[in-house]
Amino acid sequence: MTVREPAEEYLEGYAEILAAVCATRRRLTREEREALGSLGERAAEAGIGLRAGVRAHLAAAQRVRPGLPPAVADHLLSAVEQAVDAFAEGHERAQHLAIRQEEAARREFIEDLLYGRSDLGRLAERAERFGLLLSHAHAVAVAQGPEPYGDGHPVFRTVESSLVARFGNRRILLTTKDGRLICVAPADEPEVITHFSKQAYAATDGGRVALGRAHPGAGGVVHSYEEALNALDLADRMNLDEPVLRAADLLVYPVLARDRQAMADLVRTVLGPLREARGGAKPLLDTLTAYFDTGCVTAQAARALSLSVRAMTYRLDRIHRLTGADPGDPVQRYTLQTAVIGARLLDWPDQPL
Fold first, then answer.
1. Cα–Cα distance measured from residue 234 to residue 246, given in angstroms and rounded to the nearest whole number
2. I need a labelling partner for 293 at 20 to 30 A (CA). Which of 26, 60, 258, 305 fits?
3. CA atoms within 13 Å, Cβ hemisphere of 299
4. To 10 degrees, what angle do helices 260-271 and 330-346 make?
5. pLDDT at 118
6. Three-state SS for 183?
7. How many separate helices (H) and strands (E) can be counted in the chain?
8. Residues 6+ apart with CB under 8 A from 224
9. What is the spatial distance between Cα 73 and Cα 322, in angstroms, rounded to a whole number?
10. Beta-bridge partner residues of 139
């Protein structure tokens, strides 16, 4: 007894079509092509590969040929070619539809994951389909560059290829959102995030990468993602020039900005007198920023501002006279530095308090 190949179940009516086409030496009708295309769709949905389908068509044609009159047998090859083309068209159509549906499902999952809009239990079930175990802790890294990136962008493909080559099929999710590259990786594999950061920085031609802290559960992914986004926003507001920002290193800034009114009062009280200086508060505020950023080393701060040490010292003395706070005094320095951070967070003096 001959065992039928699985693909042969999707050849219903095929032998009859071959016989009819060869008998009249005509081409397949639209209805016949549509019928064969539907069989191709069904085969694809059942997981039958196109190679197996073509092989089944050829095998069936060989069984049909002996029963054909010699005069029309030569037309069989043309009929098989048309039939296989119709079957393959339907098969490919089903494959493309499946890919689009998979992409839509993946995008919907990512949206829900990064916004926490779905039931967490259901989200965890869906996550396994895309390679994540949300019962574990995860960290999120976000990279942005001079232009927006989508899943098909060369920058995305470059970073993706590097991650796959290095880590294979580990439980990593690489995607894009709002023009940024996003990597979600298990917390116990920090080398993944490190590698992503290096590759994303290089591929974006000197972009910036922010790393959220690791948090457990589905809600932890959202938390880490938001930390990374806040770090990028903070870097823009504070004019931070580090290529890789770690949310864990920037925790002091959200704490300082939590009470906006208190911070505004501090900036207004401590730095407000700088407005009386010739040229306004901005040059002296830049002086304090450079002074604190260089570890309160006058010569180094002067070089950063392209000033002489004498001019830098004069500016610091001027700040002391206007504010009453001495940048060289450890206690008063802390008040001044906190006020300078607040000014940068609040975009003062460009924005009124």
1. 11
2. 258
3. 0
4. 120
5. 66
6. strand
7. 15, 6
8. 138, 139, 140, 212, 213, 214, 215, 247
9. 104
10. 185
Q: What is residue 191's predicted lDDT score, i.e. its pLDDT?
A: 93
Separation between Cα atoms, residue 283 and residue 305, nearest integer Å: 10
The size of the chain, in residues, is 353
166 is written with which tokens? 């290095």
β-pairing, 208-211 vs 244-246, is parallel
In eight-state DSSP terms, residue 180 is: E
Could you tell me if 223 and 137 are in contact, meaning their C-beta atoms sit under 8 angstroms apart? no
- 68: Cβ contacts below 8 Å, ≥ 6 apart: 19, 22, 76
Nearest to 346 by CA among 278, 261, 281: 261
Containing 228, the helix (H) or strand (E) segment is: helix 217-238
Dihedral sign, CA of 120, 125, 128, 129?
negative
Quick check: helix, strand or coil at residue 211? strand
Exposed/middle/buried for residue 106 (C-beta within 10 Å: 0-12, 13-18, 19+): middle
How far apart are alpha carbons 106 and 176 in whole angstroms?
Answer: 11
Q: Which long-range contacts (CB under 8 A, 24 or more apart) does 10-14 make?
A: 10/39, 10/40, 10/42, 10/43, 10/46, 10/48, 10/53, 10/56, 11/39, 11/56, 11/57, 11/60, 12/39, 14/39, 14/57, 14/60, 14/83
Note whether 6 and 56 are within 8 A (CB).
no
**H-helix or E-strand spanning residue 291:** helix 281-293
Residue for token pair 């590259």: 181
Question: For each successive 10 residues of the chain (353 residues), what is the average pLDDT?
Answer: 64 87 87 91 88 89 80 80 91 84 78 75 76 86 93 91 86 90 92 94 91 89 92 85 87 77 89 89 91 90 92 92 88 87 87 79
Give the pLDDT score at 3. 42
CA distances from 25 to 12, 48, 80, 270 (A): 21, 30, 12, 96
